[in-house]
Amino acid sequence: MTSLTPRTRAAITVGRLAADASRRFGRGSGEMIGGKLALRVSAGALGELAAQRPCVCVSATNGKTTTTRLLARALGTLGPVVSNSGGANMAAGVLTALARPPFDAPAALEVDEIWLPKVAREVRPRAVVLLNISRDQLDRSNETRRIAALWRQLGAELPGATAVANCDDPLVAWAAEGWSRQLWVSAGQNWTADGMVCPSCAQLLHRNDFGWWCDCGLARPEPSVLVSGSDELVWFGRHVHAKLDLPGRVNLGNAAMAAAAAKLFGVEVDDALAAMTGLGDVEGRYKEVPLGPGRRGRMLLAKNPAGWVEMMELLGSSPPRPVVVDFNSQTADGRDPSWIWDVPFERLIGREVHVAGERRHDMSVRLAYAQVPHDVHPTAEQAAAGAGAALVDVVANYTAFRDLLVRSAARARGEPGPPTAAFGPAGVADAVATLDETAPADGYRRYDDRTGYASPDKYENHDGYDSRGGYRSEGGYRGDEGYPGRSGGADEAGSRP
Questions:
Q1: I need a labelling partner for 358 at 20 to 30 A (CA). Which of 159, 260, 321, 378 fits?
Q2: Cα separation of 250 and 188, whole Å?
Q3: The pLDDT value given to residue 414
């Protein structure tokens, strides 16, 4: 730290004291509060600390936490690495990572997609890993082309940096074209609805099994690295076996991106992939946690349509366990949950499905229109208790995922844990328990088209939702006829949302 200014040295001390206090009082890891206070003391601390070490930034809508963890493992084959792979991915969290010794060690930095330009201008990374861009929080990052444009502009400001970019995402490819150096990786793109038009000219893109292209000339670049199977990569022309402990093809794509970035630091692909084995969960993702007596849940994070599509693929390749959908809409999730109508929940038909969380009723309506029979419960724990198997798959968005992990960790330590954490900060009363006087003693209600959530017979009441025919009440939704009721649409076939 010999080249740091006295102000930045003082900022690091303040940040460490604040982080220690946060951990001591059980308020969290301290990464964010420590970094925020340090930046208040020294606004230039980020650039000063980054100048001491080689850095690589990882950014995306989905997958950046996992990819950063995989990259840190790959770079660890060369020696010590610092990282913020715990998910604190804005400027404050990045600063906390950079303030850790040794100060000449490489840094693998997860960076929020909107914060990437601001952070990267300060950090001046050797490489930036660009995974994907899609809608996330509709009140924050819904303008996907704007994010791509910011990334593209950033490339012109970092002439020495390499963009390690997913060529299967048109928004990412267009953004990376603005950089002086690119390393193209075919990591896949299951969700294409946010990349239907050309980011350059706004014409509709053409797609086939081999790629995408536009009449204006923008087309999928030829990759140097691609995922070619469930456990295989094509690496600069040669086939490489890649077996991970993390499940799903999506994580093999994340590993390919991480290995490509590590190559720029001198890490051989075989060494990088070997270092990634043994990692079975990342910040709770894919981890099995206790959900109550005789019940466990495998934790899956899905916080937007693209993430849900990836989890659908993973669920489809796993044993057909009961599925618990835990759904909130707090600030960190985005207050607008309407994106759930873009998710193809019809793929859950045939599965045992339970719904929980703050916005469980919104999710219940969406599943009803998808003709997915399900139960509704206040909490994921109650949902798991009502499931027909000891092990369930819990698919949760951000705050529901976070809060359930906190409760399950307390349960694993033998502590009761905060029973209402899923509904807001600790100490907030359970809105369902206190406000919902119609809830029966078993702790949950089921939908009835006539009377609301009170029917004892799940979703099979003859006037309400029926798994075979949808809403069959005379003027309402019919599963096979759209909405032809007297007060509905005038067209013969009706309409579905």
A1: 321
A2: 8
A3: 80
